[in-house]
Amino acid sequence: MPEMVEPRSGAVRVIRAAVIVGIVLALIFGIPLVLRGLNLHDWSKQTFGPNGFYELFIATEFVVIVLAVIAMWRAGLRRAFGELAIAYLSPLGCLCCLAAIAASCAILLLAGAKWTTQRMDSLLIFGVIGPFVEEVLFRGFLFRQMRRWAGVPFWIAAVLASILFGAGHFYAGHSLANAIVNSTVTFVGGVIFCWMIERWDSIWPGFIIHAGLNLLWSVYTLGDNAVGGTIGNIARIATLVIAIVLTWALTRKNSVSLHPGH
User: How far, in Å, CA of 220 to CA of 42, rounded?
Assistant: First the structure.
């Protein structure tokens, strides 16, 4: 992947960062309004099923993200996928995160968590496709382009991206206190995922953790938002600790990238 081109001045960095945040806010709030304005809400549900509008929303969101990166870098699709950290799989990073999810499964089984049958289409949408688009939006685009296109320092980019990520999950709370806890948990997870994409130079290790935890939350009915219960939180903490330790141990000597194309 080509090296990032840092802006020459602080003012340019601030303007570019504002552009990125503006695009993200437009994607989150603007796309649903546009789709509804085009009378696609009912049509999408009739055509694709109960989750049709959500499917249409995330598909549109993904396409717009890719087009935005192409415009920002004045490059083609291949460069856009590289900038979003989709192009590089990071086999070692993926193996580390799969091991972390496997440990979480073992904890749930030992704790006697009960498996519940879920609709396959719901698992696919909310356990796989949804987390993928969220990783692309908040980590591949918002965080990574703040770092690469706007030249923002790591912690500022990670905190800002994670604040928006957490705020996007505020609605899932059952009460004000629950919503605050839900957003806080999501914020912490967002910072960890930003750190992982920075370390592995790939979206896929963080996606495995994100999707894996979402799937476990669904099939073991650990909760209907990120707050969860005691067993679920023990399993989640174990997953994140293992993923962090393995990632740190295997990437601490790599100052730039883990794959030769960078």
Answer: 32
